[in-house]
Every structure is written in C-alpha cells, then in structure tokens.
UniProtKB/TrEMBL annotation:
Superkingdom assignment: Bacteria
Family as reported in the entry's similarity comment: Belongs to the peptidase S41A family.
Keywords: Hydrolase, Protease, Serine protease
GO cellular component: outer membrane-bounded periplasmic space
Presence of the UniProt keyword Phosphoprotein in the record: no
Coiled coil: none
Matches recorded under InterPro entries: ClpP/crotonase-like_dom_sf, CtpA/B_N, PDZ, PDZ_sf, Peptidase_S41A, Tail-specific_protease
SUPFAM superfamilies noted in UniProt: ClpP/crotonase, PDZ domain-like
NCBIfam families: prc (TIGR00225)
Entry GO MF terms: endopeptidase activity; serine-type peptidase activity
Protein name as it appears in the record: Carboxyl-terminal processing protease
Organism expressing this protein natively: Billgrantia gudaonensis
Signal peptide: none
Ranges where the PDZ domain occurs: 100-168
Length: 440
C-alpha cells in the first residue's frame, strides 16, 4: 500500500522535495488507499498513472529550483489546484478564503462592487449580464461585452475568480474597465464608481389596468416567496388579464429559487431535471398543485443575458405550454455548480451536473429559443407620419376615472422598451381572443 508514496519519492533528487512529494502523493492516492473514506455508491476511480505523477513532480521541482524568483510550496500547490479546475470548464474554480467569502456574500445579495455577472466564453472574460440598478447597468455595460482590462491589468491571464476579486472593492472607489463590444472595432474604456450592491431580486408594477409586470433580476434564496408576494399585490385590486415576466439580463442563481418561480405559474408537471455522475446530482423537480397564478396569460421576456436559472424558468414554462417566450436567444448556461467547503476554510466550485427542460432539451451551449423573436429597440414615429395630438397628451387635461396617474410615465417607458411594448401588445391580443372564445 505504501508503494505509490515511495515510488513518487524516488524520482526526486533534492532532499527538500521528499516531504513535498510524499504530501502530494498522499493527496493523490489511488482508490484502494482511500476506500474507507469513500461512499459505496461513488463511481470507481482509476489508479493514477505513475508516469504522469512523476512528470508533475519533476515540473514542480524544476520550478522550485530554476524559476527566476523563489516560489513557496504552498503557492505552487494552490496554482496547480487552480489549474486543474480552470481547465475543466469556465465555471469550476478553486476558491481561497477571500474568494470563498466573496461568493458567500454574493449569494446573500450584498457586496461591494460594480454589479455585473461575468463568465469565461471562448477563453475571454465576458459579461453575462449587468444587475439592475447598479453602477454597471447605469454605465451601459451589456451582456456579451468582452472585458479586456480591469484598470491596468489585462484579463487574458486571469482566472474568473481573480477577475471578480479585482472588480470588488471599497464603495466609492473607481474602477476602469476596458471592454470590446460586438460589432465594434475599437475597445472602449468605462470608469465606474463602486457601490454597495444590494440586489432586490423582484420588482412589480401595473403596466396598464389589468396587465402586470414582474421583473426578476436574479435568483436568490427568497426569490420564490417574493414572486408569490408580488403576485398577491398585483391581484389585490382585481384579477389580471395578463402578465409580463421579465427575465432579461438575469444571470441566474439558486436552482431551487428557479423551481419556486416556475411553480408559481404551474399546477402540475415537470419543471427541470439534472443529470450527473453521482447519484445525488440526479434530481427531478415538479410543480405542486398550490399555485399563485395558474391561469394568468403569461409572456416571458428573455435575451442574451438570461442565463442558468433564468433559462430553467423560461424553458419549463415554454415546454409546458404555459407561456409565450419572447425576445432573443438566451445565454446557454445549462450546468449546475456545487460549492464544496474544504477543511482549511477554502472551497471548490465544481460543475457536477447538467440540467434539462421538461422535454429533455439541454440548454448547455444551446440556450432557449424564443417563440417570438423581438430585438430590443425604441419605438419611434416614422418620418413624415403625423400622429397628431390627443387630449391625453395635453398638460393639465382632465383625467378619466379609469386612467392611471402614472400613464404618461409608463407610456414613455414602453416607447423606450420595444420588447416590453410588444409583450404587452401580445397579452392584449391573447386577452381579446380569449374573450371571443368564451362568447362562442
């Protein structure tokens, strides 16, 4: 049983290396040496190739001996662990204490930074989505912008966690981000002042009488119950004739929260299922009969910044024929990460499963295709067309009893947001068709 340790140790010529090699080999023992600490239903692990372990140890030794600057063993070993995870996929990572704490703060919904969700795409640090009402969204950063530099640091050599750490900082401090936007030849530099990012994941309002708007900016642990509360407030004055569920630029979050949101609109049926190598990564989530809004006509808005948990909700409602999905193709992140604490206060973020929509579609690198394609834009009157002035446009006009006081403000918002305006128009059309069908 000790032969692997001894064998690895023999390739090392420097006495200092004996201890490092033994420690390394102990961490990399084949399954028989670790059998007592392994669950019976864990998949079999092949014995490690001795030749590759020897090569690893040789590289380690040569760096220690010949690198231009002295590097301690702890740094080299952690860099090796980072490398193992970084090469798996863009979302797996080794987290030191600071990074582990940063991730914990993010899931709790409060941290100091600029307010963007980032990921690695084609080896480049890419914005998945800016978070609503944050410095990043106000500065105009967009989904799929590639971040080239963070202040003076090029991002091409940074891991995802290192980039996130650089962008976090004290509220009130400035950060300059150099981005390259699709369709543009030259990079642009954007200076942003960091703030405490307190993310409210759910907002709601009436677009018009009978037509509600529900915005979910990300999925946190309490998002499901917040959505139910918002639906109760929207229906407090009467039933809804239609609802827009806005998941644009929603980077995802907690899987259970996505299930809870989809469940608010479904009375039965599968919502999502996951598949992985370990038994506990294979899960199925179905809707419960108690449903907050089972019959409200529903349009779901998505775009290229809708990712992960947002795609779960859109895919479930689409497959169950519960909603019309409108907008542009989503981001395509269909993998599940588990956060695994380590005994030293650090941790792993490891991709352990893929998730699938009720009809078995994998979202990974595919995304959700909308039922109705609508690009984002602004409504404008065509040149030469005179739509005239109506009574409602005159300042100080007498209000109708049924006219919402915020109508002019909402009208401007609908002009600015073409996708939202089209979603509202579709809901009105569905409502008219439904009323006619009831009469017939």
């Amino acid at each position: 049983m000790l032969s692997p340790l001894v064998h690895v140790g023999r390739v090392l010529q420097h006495p200092h290396w004996m201890l490092s090699a033994v420690l390394l080999a102990f961490c990399l023992v084949p399954l028989p040496l670790a059998a007592q600490a392994t669950s019976d239903d864990m998949p079999a692990v092949d014995e490690l190739p001795v030749e590759d372990v020897q090569t690893f140890a040789e590289v380690f030794e040569r760096i220690k001996r010949a690198y231009v600057e002295e590097v301690d063993d702890r740094t080299l070993l952690r860099n090796a662990m980072r490398g193992m995870l970084n090469e798996l996929d863009p979302h797996s990572a080794y987290l030191d204490r600071e990074e582990f704490e940063s991730l914990r703060e993010s899931t709790q919904g409060e941290f100091g930074g600029v307010g963007i969700e980032v990921g690695m795409q084609d080896g480049q640090l890419t914005i998945i989505a800016p978070i609503d009402d944050t410095p990043a969204s106000r500065a105009g950063l967009q989904s799929r912008d590639v971040i080239l530099r963070i202040d003076d640091t090029p991002t091409e050599s940074l891991s995802l966690q290192e980039a996130v750490t650089l962008m976090r900082g004290e509220p009130g401090s400035d950060i300059t981000i150099t981005i390259l936007r699709r369709g543009e030849e030259s990079p642009r530099r954007v200076t942003i002042t960091r703030e405490i990012i307190r993310t409210e994941s759910v907002k709601h309002e009436l677009l018009e009488e009978g037509f509600g708007y529900l915005r979910v900016s990300q999925f946190q642990s309490r998002t499901g119950e917040q959505v139910v509360g918002a639906l109760e407030e929207l229906t407090a004055e009467g039933p809804l004739d239609g609802l827009v569920l806005d998941l644009r630029n929603n980077p995802g979050g907690v899987l259970q929260a996505a299930v809870d949101v989809a469940d608010a609109f479904l009375e039965e049926g599968l919502i999502v299922y996951t598949e992985g190598r370990l038994p506990d990564t294979e899960m199925r989530f179905s809707a419960k009969r108690e449903t907050a809004a089972p019959d409200v006509p529903l349009v779901v808005l998505i775009n290229g910044g809708s990712a992960s948990a947002a795609e779960i909700v859109a895919g479930a409602l689409q497959d169950q024929r519960r909603a019309v999905v409108m907008g542009t193709e989503s981001f395509g992140k269909g993998s599940v990460q588990q956060i695994m604490p380590l005994g030293n206060g650090e941790g792993l973020k490891l991709t352990t499963a893929l998730y699938f929509t009720p009809e078995g579609r994998s979202i990974q690198a595919q995304g959700i295709e909308p039922d109705v394609d609508v690009v984002r834009g602004r409504l404008e009157v065509a040149e030469g067309q005179d739509i005239g002035v109506r009574e409602v446009d005159l300042e100080g006009h007498l209000r109708s009893r049924n006219e919402p006081r915020e109508r002019s403000e909402m009208s401007e918002r609908l002009r600015e947001d073409y996708q939202l305006a089209e979603a509202l128009n579709l809901l009105k059309a569905l409502n008219v068709v439904g009323q006619r069908n009831q009469r017939d």
